[in-house]
Amino acid sequence: MLKAHRPHIFALFAAAIAATSMPAAAQESGGLTGSVSDESEWQDLGIAIPAFPTDRDQPTPAAPQTTSKLGVELARVITADLQNNGLFKPVGPDRLPKIAFTEATNPQFDRWRPLGTDMLVHGYVTAAANNQLTVGCYLYDVQLGSELVREGYVVAPADWRRAAHKCADMIYSRLSGEEPFFDSRIAYIAETGPKGNRRKRLAIMDSDGANHRFITSGSSSALTPRYSPDYSKIAYLSYSDGNPRIYVYDIQSGRQTLVTQASGPTFAPRWSPDGRYILYSMAIAGNTDIYRVSASGGGTPVKLTDSPGIDIGGSYSPDGKRIVFESDRSGSQQIYVMDADGSNQRRISFFGGRAATPEWSPRGDQIAFTHIAGDLRVAVMSPSGGGMRHLTNAWQDEAPTWSPNGRIIQFFRTTKNTGQTSLWQVDLTGRHLRKLDTPEDASDPAWGPVLP
Question: 270 with 315: CB under 8 angstroms?
Fold first, then answer.
């Protein structure tokens, strides 16, 4: 269990690194705040992240084995997080001198100014008698010679990477004004085997691809996973009984539950923002509609659409008041929006080609979707259908899913002629694109919220 300690109780950690009040210069300046609109100013910001020192090198059950080695790994993870989001170009511990334990709270600014460092990340890691780890994280403005923000975390050894992600989230939010997203997880479908006969199993991992874990064996195909808002469950499509059915997998117990007994195939599950309901689609006699059912599996499903054709892929707005979905009622796949009770259904995509797999941004201001016009590309538009623009330009990019802060979109890409699939991320500018490494081919990603 990870416990975050804000500045006002940070002093409880150790007398040697007792909390001090923020210098007046930092209070007056307020540091760097505001939403990012132009990334160029941030990419020139020099951020130095030396290894986190320890008071004394001790064995730890964490993978790096000792607190000294763990301090290096913590700084490496923070560096990678900040580097991969497209806003900053940090310098990590492998290119920087080490600092003494006492420097974590007493940085030597004159040491860093000649190196062109604007921001300095210091931290420490110590081992407690109960095998818990304490990790401190500080962000300093080198030019002002002041502390901007600090946090500390008490974690079990197995959760040391969460402390690094939390630290990166703190830095990212303080400098950019954006909401955090590094301390989150991704569910997806791992694929192996020849094209046309793929084994597809459910898998989960951290937002950076670490702590990978397979959930299902692959004896039956799995598709379209979605995390519950509290991360306790995953809803997904399974062919475990030979037919497409929606199941909810309880991560802690390993049990899975059939969402609803249905006469027709069910697919495309989506959670409501409060976790009380699951949307899904069901096909009956050639017609597919969207239904809502209690996430507990009890009660009678409520039918939300009733039009000839295929209605599929509902995704709630962040406030839970509206649902975006795809339908071919106009003759081809297009994007529609309706109120949460199924009323006021209206088409919003009128830009040519087809549109599928819509997902509402956590910010509520945009909808990501797959635009099908020759190639398949990831695109975004406003909830009214305006401002459509492409973020990718490849042969087959599809199934976008948002980062928790609504700044980055993950999707999967299929390589032409091979059927090989992989996970990719792109930011809202469309300029920062990167592949996320997975042990097998990967598809159908679903990015969960920031971990509690």
Answer: yes
Does residue 410 contact residue 369 with C-beta atoms inside 8 Å?
no
Q: Model confidence at 88, in pLDDT bands (50, 70, 90)? A: confident
Phi, psi of 25 (to 5 degrees): -60, -40
Here the tokens at position 288 are 């597919």
pLDDT of amino acid 36: 34
Q: For residue 163, which of 48, 75, 294 has the smallest C-alpha distance?
A: 75
3-state secondary structure of 377: strand
| 3 state DSSP class of 277 | strand
Beta bridge partners of 120: 48, 140
Amino acid at the residue 353: G
Tokens representing residue 251 in the block: 């991560």
pLDDT digits (tens, 9 = 90+) for 197-229: 889 999 999 999 999 999 998 888 999 999 999
Question: 333 CB contacts (<8 Å, ≥6 apart)?
Answer: 326, 327, 354, 355, 356, 372
- Cα torsion 16, 182, 188, 273 to 10°: value is 110
Segment 15-35, tens digit of pLDDT: 222 222 222 323 333 333 233
pLDDT of residue 43: 52
Tell how strand 47-48 and strand 119-127 pair up: parallel
Q: What is the pTM of this model?
A: 0.87
The rounded distance, in Å, linking the Cα atoms of 68 and 227 is 35
Cα gap 321→383, rounded to integer Å = 13
Phi, psi of 93 (to 5 degrees): -65, -25
d(CA 428, CA 99): 37
Work out the average pLDDT over 379-394.
97
- Per-residue DSSP letter, 361: -
Contact 433, 392 (CB under 8 A): yes
